[in-house]
C-alpha cells in the first residue's frame, strides 16, 4: 500500500470514528444554564444532567449559587430521571421533595424543564423554562 493510500485510509478511519463518537453523545448529558430571570438578582442557577452507564437512567442536580462565584453553592437538589419509552423526553423526581419534572430537548441545543411547582431549593425561584448549554 502506498503512503498516500495509507494516509487516506487513516483519515477515513478517523472521520468514521469521530462521527460515531458524535452520534454516541447523549443529548441531555451536560450542564444547562438559564438567564437571570429564573434566579434572584444575586444568584445564578443551572441544571447538571449526567447519564451513568445504565440505559435510559439519568441523574440531575439543580444548583443555586452566588452570582459572582459559582463555587459558593447556596442550595442544590438531586434527582433521578429516565428517558421516556419513545426517547423524546426525561421524566423524574427530586430525591428529597419527590417533586416531579419533565425535561424536553429543543432545537438549537436547548432543553426545557417542566416541573410541578417551583424550585426544590426556594419556592420563589421558578425552575421551569428553557436552558441553554452552559458556557454558550
Average pLDDT reading: 81
Main pleated sheet: 8 strands, antiparallel, barrel
The arrangement of helices and strands along the chain is: HEEEEEEEE
**Range of helix content:** 10-25%
Keywords:
136 residues, alpha+beta, 8-stranded antiparallel beta barrel, 1 helix, 42% strand
Please summarize what this structure is.
This protein is of the alpha+beta class. The protein contains 1 helix and 8 strands, in the order H-E-E-E-E-E-E-E-E. The protein has one helix at about 5-25, and strands at about 30-35, 45-50, 55-65, 75-85, 90-95, 100-105, 110-115, 130-135.
Describe the fold and architecture:
The chain has one helix and eight strands; from the N terminus they run H-E-E-E-E-E-E-E-E. By secondary structure, the chain is α+β, with helices and mostly antiparallel strands. It is globular. Residues 7-23 have low confidence and may be disordered.
